[in-house]
Amino acid sequence: MRIVLFVFITGLLFVGCEEKKDDKYTTCEIVSSTALLAENRERDENQCWTGGVQTDQDRALTWCRGKASDYCNAEYLICDQALGVRVSNDGC
User: Fold this and answer.
1) Distance (Å, whole) CA 16 – CA 32
2) Of residues 78, 80, 77, 71, the one with CA closest to residue 43
3) Could you read off the pLDDT of 50-86 as tens digits, one per residue?
4) 33 near 45, Cβ under 8 Å?
5) Coil, strand or helix: which one is 39?
6) Residue 91 Cα distances to 27, 39, 45, 72, angstroms
7) What Rg do the C-alpha atoms of the chain give, in angstroms?
8) By C-alpha distance, which of 3, 6, 26, 21 is closest to 91?
């Protein structure tokens, strides 16, 4: 009986840790900004891009940080604010 219980509990642990193989990160959005002006923070936090199809979260975040950096450099003469980003498959 103990062996059956052990196998059952161990199986539950592995099922809970199973990685989703079909997740694709297609959306990048800025979720936080340290811009001084509230209107700039609001504009920053409304930025969202789609089109990057990554299955690896680290690669998706690298792509997303690049999009946010490109946006910041194009939008501001001096891009000195920190931008927090998030990747998902939710769309904009």
Assistant:
1) 31
2) 71
3) 988 899 999 999 999 999 999 999 999 999 999 999 9
4) yes
5) helix
6) 5, 24, 15, 21
7) 20
8) 26
d(CA 27, CA 64): 8
Strand ordering across the sheet containing 83-88: 48-54, 25-33, 83-88
| Angle, vertex CA 43, rays to CA 40 and CA 45, nearest 5 | 105
- Max distance between CA atoms of the chain, in angstroms, equals 70
52 phi, psi to nearest 5 deg = -85, 120
pLDDT on residue 52: 82
The pTM (predicted TM-score) of the whole model is 0.72
